[in-house]
Amino acid sequence: MNRDTITLVVLLLVIIASGSDIYMDLRQGASMMHLIEEAIVLGLATLLLSWFSLNYKRQKRQIQELTQELLDARNQALPADAALLEARHRLADVMAVQFEAWELSPSEKEVGMLLLKGLSLKEIALLRGTAEKTIRQQASSIYKKAGVVGRHGFAAWFIEDFL
C-alpha cells in the first residue's frame, strides 16, 4: 500500500468511527461540547477525504492529458526528408550508447529521454506514477553521471555539435 492509500483508509476509519461515536453519544445523552468536538473531527476528516478525492481526479485527468500529448507527438508524421530521418535515428542511437556509457539505470534512461523531450519534472512524475521528488533525485543523478550542471547542460551535451 502506498502512502496515499493508507491516508485514505485512515480518513475513512476516522469518519466511520466519528459518525458511530456521535450516534452513540446522542443515544446516551452526551454533552453538547463533546458532540461539537466529534462533529468537528467528522467534518475535518470528510473535508480531507473530499480534497484527496478531487486531487486524485485532477491528477488522473492530467495523466490522461499528458499520455494523449505523448501519443499525439509519437503519431505525428515524421519528416519526409531522408537526411533528417537518418539524423534523428543516429541521434537516438548516440543517446542510447551514451546512456549506457554513463551507466544510467533503466529508470534513469526513461527519465533522461523524457527530460530531453522537454517534459517538466512534474509531468514526468505524473506519467511515471512516482513522486516529483523521486524524479528530481533521478534527474540529479543523471546530471551527475553525465558530468553536467543541469537540464540545459544535459540537452546541450547531445545537440551542441549540431548547432
Automatic annotation (TrEMBL):
- TM regions (residue ranges): 35-54
Question: What biological-process terms (Gene Ontology) are attached?
Answer: regulation of DNA-templated transcription
Cite the Gene3D superfamilies for this sequence.
Winged helix-like DNA-binding domain superfamily/Winged helix DNA-binding domain
Q: Which SMART domains match?
A: HTH_LUXR
Q: Which InterPro entries match?
A: Sig_transdc_resp-reg_C-effctor, Tscrpt_reg_LuxR_C, WH-like_DNA-bd_sf
HTH luxR-type domain mapped to chain residues: 101-158
Any one Gene Ontology molecular-function term assigned to this protein's record: DNA binding
Q: Identify this protein by name.
A: Transcriptional regulator, LuxR family
- This protein's species is Shewanella amazonensis (strain ATCC BAA-1098 / SB2B)
